Amino acid sequence: MPFREIGSKMVEARVAPGQRMFSQRGAMIAYRGEVSFTPSIQGGQGGIGSMIGRRLAGEATALMTVEGDGTVLFGHGGHHVEVVELSGDTLCVEADRLLAFDGTLEQGTMFMGSQGGVMGMVRGQVTGQGLFTTTLSGHGSVAVMAHGGVIRLPITPGRPVHVDPQAYVAHHGDVRNKLSTALGWRDMVGRGSGEAFQLELSGQGEVFVQASEEKL
């Protein structure tokens, strides 16, 4: 169920009978056809255990289920929208950055401490995003939101990518992340709050970075 980008701040999705998708509540801009929107307490294919885990983690975002036969325009807050196509891999993204995604994708929660140990947990505190992040796995489309546009940076073995934690949006592929220190780095080249941290991503995949240090 691919999304079609309409400009830089909206996407159009085709809803077909027997299929469903999920979106942030209030993200519907307009629709054509026979389409229904209902509150979702679960979201995705992660099951009730995954839903409870996200609730306990504070990582749950209010979703609605979209079903029927028609087309829907999604957008939210005037944020830039980027469409990510998953082909059996996993996207790690903050829950509040999810605009809409295929209902076939399995949604879960990843403890940030599982990647980078204690420094992984520190990253959650530094970015203000908490200790958990949302995961979407499988084959399908995801529309994510960002401030000021998004660039995609490839991550290849032996060539890690360093990102300002405030500019990080999402990543996918076989990627590990850890927080590294760089004394004076923010004072010299960043416009953040003064913490000298970089998010280091290594492995094989792709990271999405927004052209802003603002949170949604």
Task: Furnish the topology, listing elements before pairings.
Layout: E1 3-6, E2 10-15, E3 20-24, E4 28-40, H1 47-57, E5 63-74, E6 80-93, E7 98-102, E8 106-111, H2 117-127, E9 132-146, E10 150-155, E11 161-163, E12 168-181, H3 185-189, E13 197-210
Antiparallel strand pairs: 1-2, 2-5, 3-5, 3-7, 4-5, 6-9, 6-12, 7-9, 8-9, 10-13, 11-13, 12-13
Put the structure in a nutshell.
By secondary structure, this protein is mostly beta strands. The protein has helices spanning 47-57, 117-127, 185-189, and strands at 3-6, 10-15, 20-24, 28-40, 63-74, 80-93, 98-102, 106-111, 132-146, 150-155, 161-163, 168-181, 197-210.
Descriptive key words:
globular; single chain; 13-stranded antiparallel β-sheet
